[in-house]
Amino acid sequence: QVQLVESGGGSVQPGGSLRLSCAASGSGFSTYGMGWYRQAPGKQREVVAIITPGGSTIYADSVKGRFTISRDNARNAVNLQMNRLNVEDTAVYYCNAQWLGKSYWGQGTQVTVSS
């Protein structure tokens, strides 16, 4: 069982920045595939960024060049640095872990971008 707790959401003006963090339980964190997803009102959940156990990253086209995913295996944490935010980034952001064929989700954190 893996438990995930997100933090760092909030409200920001367009062009601003936020940093999301996800703390994961378990001693096998370095072997987890980790990712950030988001779900806007009335829309399906979509992938934002993924980082493999080896540190390779994949980004959605809509966030390339603006968002950066990173992991800290010593702290069992994965972060999402979000720069140049725009109103279309408004959503609930979820942390995800993939481990031994199972998928685990955090409770989500709200990010609101508005002027």
Give the helices and strands, then pairings.
Layout: E1 4-7, E2 10-12, E3 18-24, E4 33-39, E5 46-51, E6 57-59, E7 67-72, E8 77-82, E9 91-99, E10 102-105, E11 109-113
Parallel strand pairs: 2-11
Antiparallel strand pairs: 1-3, 3-8, 4-5, 4-9, 5-6, 7-8, 9-10, 9-11
Task: Explain what this protein looks like in three dimensions.
The structure is a single chain. This protein is mainly beta and 115 residues long. It contains no helices and eleven strands. Strands 2, 4, 5, 6, 9, 10 and 11 form a seven-stranded mixed β-sheet that branches. The protein has a four-stranded antiparallel β-sheet with strand order 1-3-8-7, with no helix packed on it. It is globular and about 40 Å long.
From the alpha carbons, calculate the radius of gyration and give it in angstroms. 13 Å
Mean pLDDT: 97
Number of helices: 0
The unreliable regions are: none
Can you summarize the main beta sheet? Answer: 7 strands, mixed
